[in-house]
Amino acid sequence: MIKVSETAKQKLRALMAEDGFKIDNDFVRVGVKSGGCSGLSYDLNFDKNHEEKDKVFEDNGVKIVVNKSSFLYLVGTTLEYSGGLNGKGFVFNNPNAQRTCGCGESFSL
Questions:
Q1: Residues 6+ apart with CB under 8 A from 18
Q2: Which residues make beta-bridge pairs with 91?
Q3: Is the Cβ–Cβ distance between 29 and 70 less than 8 Å?
Q4: CB burial of residue 62 (10 Å; 0-12, 13-18, 19+)
Q5: Which sign, positive or negative, has the C-alpha torsion 48, 41, 85, 98?
Q6: In terms of CB atoms within 10 Å, which of 35, 92, 93, 105 comes out highest?
């Protein structure tokens, strides 16, 4: 399960609308890919469909899909949005990550 904070939900709603997606019908696709200074990096996109092997969740009114290979890396993660002076963007608070890079966009287990 992946949780979505209220601030992340509001930002996702705005970004999805800009890209022609609707938060009530469409999905936020969250995944993990190789790369980044810590070895793995997060991937976040919008999608109108989900694949048969995807895990599908809903939290705080946001439908989330995760591919099967990324699921174990993301269990228990909370997606948040930070709009402070030190940088804007989505933040993945991942309890599975043992090490993260300075920018918070990559991690290792």
A1: none
A2: 80
A3: no
A4: buried
A5: positive
A6: 92
Task: Tokens 């990559």: give the residue.
Answer: 106
How far apart are alpha carbons 67 and 56 in whole angstroms? 9
Three-state helix/strand/coil letters over 7-76: HHHHHHHHHHHHCCCCCCCCEEEEEEEECCCCCEEEEEEEECCCCCCCEEEEECCEEEEECHHHHHHHCC
**Pairing between β-strand 87-93 and β-strand 55-59 as defined by DSSP bridges:** unpaired
Per-residue pLDDT of the chain (109 residues; tens, 9 = 90+): 899 999 999 999 999 999 999 999 999 999 988 765 557 888 999 999 999 999 999 999 999 999 998 998 899 999 999 877 666 788 888 887 765 655 555 444 5
With left for phi above 0 and alpha for psi between -120 and 50, is residue 96 left, alpha or beta? Answer: alpha
Give the type of residue at 98.
Q
